[in-house]
Amino acid sequence: MRQKLMTCVAILAGLIVTGSRAQVPALPPIEIADPAPSGVRVDDHEVFANYFPGKGVGSRPGILLLAGSEGGLGSGTVHIASALQAEGFSVLQLCYFGCPGLPAKLASVPLETFSSAPEWLRRRPDIDSTRLAIVGGSKGAEAALLA
């Protein structure tokens, strides 16, 4: 057991001293997907998002949808927003980094970003402002907890 541990330590030390030649895969570019035929792009001074108004008569419950570390407005999250819209929810797919006017990376994201978006939803006449939810996946779930 001790021999195996010493071998691992020697290999790690060699990698540190000589530098690893392993290729680190490049991150995919941040996607800013169109909101599809059933949504609209929002480019407000405080909110950059895709908005998917709920189907039906009267005010609808609203959902603030936050993607994960892929940033931007990914097409995967557009599909989630469209599915929620089909169930009668109005969905704001918020971009909180990697979009115009926002940090390029998931660092130093202004917390105001997460308070401006629910306020944007509350001001809409087609939203029932007493029925709002925040849904996030991965890093978006962390952001939802902060919000």
Describe this structure in words.
With 147 residues, the protein is of the alpha/beta class. The chain is 33% helix and 21% strand. It has a five-stranded mixed sheet, with helices on both faces. Strand 1 (40-43) and strand 2 (48-52) form a beta hairpin. It is globular. It starts with a helix and ends with a helix. The model is unreliable at 4-18 (pLDDT under 50).
| CA distance, first residue to last residue | 49 Å
Order of helices and strands: HEEEHEHEH
Helix content: 25-40%
Structural class: alpha/beta
Please outline the major beta sheet. 5 strands, mixed
Give the tally of β-strands. Answer: 5
Give the number of helices.
Answer: 4
Q: Which stretches of 5+ consecutive residues score pLDDT under 50? A: 4-18
Question: What is the mean pLDDT?
Answer: 86
Summarize the structure.
The protein is of the alpha/beta class and 147 residues long. The chain has helices at 2-18, 75-86, 112-123, 139-146; strands at residues 40-43, 48-52, 60-66, 90-94, 127-136. Helix content is 33%, strand content 21%.
Write the layout of secondary structure elements.
Layout: H1 2-18, E1 40-43, E2 48-52, E3 60-66, H2 75-86, E4 90-94, H3 112-123, E5 127-136, H4 139-146
Parallel strand pairs: 3-4, 3-5
Antiparallel strand pairs: 1-2, 2-4
Keywords:
147 residues; alpha/beta; 4 helices; 5 strands
